[in-house]
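Hi Y.,

Following your request, here is the sequence exactly as I used it, all 618 residues.
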Amino acid sequence: MGEREKPIANETEREPESPEKDELSSSLNEHENERIQELFLEPIGQFMWRGGEAEDVTKIEKGRIEAMGGGEKYFRELDRGIITFGLQRTALLSAVEKKFLPHEAVDIIMEWLQRDETSYHYRRRMASVLNKTDAEYAKNKLLVLVSDQPNPHIRELAVNLLFRLELGEVPITEEGLDYLNKKYNLGEYNQKGNVARRLTTDGTIGVFDKERALAVCFEAASPDAPEEIITPELSKVSVSDLFFPRPNETDEERAARERALEIFTKQYFKVYQGELFSKTDYYFSDLSLKEQGAFLLLREKLGGEGKEYNRLIKFARNRGESAFRSLLVLQYDSEMFGALLNISEKDITPEDRETTETFFRKISEITEAAQGVGDYLRDTYGEEEVNGARIAVITERLMQRAVELIKDWGKDPQAVGAEEIKALDQVKVDILLFAVAFKEVSSNRKVDISEVAETGIETFEGRGLSDEDRAQMKAICASNYKQSPSLLAVASETLERSFEGRDRYYLIRHGKNIVSFLRFERKTDNRTYVGSFNVSTEVKGFSIGSAINKHALEREGRTRTIEAVVHKKNTMFKHYIDEFGFRVVGEIPNYEGTGEDFYKIERPPTDTTERTELREAA
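Below is the corresponding structure, written out as tokens. Let me know if you'd prefer a different format.
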């Protein structure tokens, strides 16, 4: 086996240096020592505390501790939930990496992952520590877990970590490839001098020839699979493996992607294992193929040198994995690069460092969610060219709101904070609502792709709606109530008033036009009012829109009672009862002095598994 490269931790992985043991211990009283021990789960906690001395309690939070003049205020904030459980776990793993001998660090992690059910959520950080201590020793330990551990969840985590280990160049012989206790018959590639190494963290393995050009790749079998000798399906890396499909792709864009593919296959070691590894201290095989492709495409666009290229390298080195993953969004709009760098380079304090990291992580989550929808659509409709182009339109449309927000925030990066992250969270929820709605509709019938291609959902507070959106909404409302001037007056007044507040609107668009909207207004801690439900009279049989509205109600009413009023003559009344889960709880004669009679209806909290469904849809 070839010698494994050992990177120096990049600035994201390398948290700020911790204070000396005596300095930190002196700032923590006995009560605080007990508090920390309660917070840190065994067995890592027992290794962190020896003789009553604190070791690297929260290196990534050192700045905050110092700003508070010691430990007491820090732990008050911890109790209030300002300092997260995740930060504590990350700090502990960093301490394990730095304070223990390689084998000892691996043993600590092996014990922890078997005893702490939350450890799966830190598999990336765990793998990073294992790679920086002793990956070969970790491999042997994990293979034993895969073989002997009765708990299927622990075995699953062990397999996941094995696929993330950086084992360097694994030699191939005339007999084949030995990789993670399996023997692979690679046919014509069973040649001395060829090597294999992981390309991603999901089991994709690259086969490199004697000149270290990437010849083919294959999917490794799970180490717990019963087969010992495997003949994998070999394939060449293609443009579609590295890049998302683009609608209306230009000849220039297509040529740039082809050049990037050629560099990826012919110069993988020179670029990824040489130039970029030395400059970023980052294993590019920790990224997906499309994330690697996005970085490579940008590198080529910037010419591999110069001021902007150096900014890219600094961005990658300082932000680490979140930087690489966020670059996926550039495949939707390459001009966003400047905005991302501006936000990354803004002045930050220890208090908002986590906010900035979260910002970049959210961008990658949104991109992954949109591509999850694309993958599901491709599975549903197939890979025919016409459908492929329409599916690319759909994913770009789902990403449109995020692209606009990021470009806007790039003009004033200092303003990026918690509210902006909240907005990105909402974009992700919108994408997942679309996914769940489509999945539900398509389970009953095959939806015409043209219906889906131009459909999108966006969520805004009333005060955040554009003038154009407000005009469209007022026009739809006027059309729906044209037969009753008195009801139109009430509805229009309510609409205008909500435009200045924080009521949440769900807008469904077809093309550039709003075709449906509804409004949610929080009344109390456990009750929400839904109103202003309007559907354009020009839209008929719009099943995907109806499903989106249904799941918007489910999301808002998961733990809250939804209340509404509905005109007794409303043709949608039966749907509210039969499909949306409302029930009549009263009557309102002469509603708002209009002379019209209404029902008061409610939808009780459902506490459904919608969140799980949303994750699965992504």
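The domain at 454-617 is CATH 3.40.630.30 (Aminopeptidase).

Thanks again,
Q.
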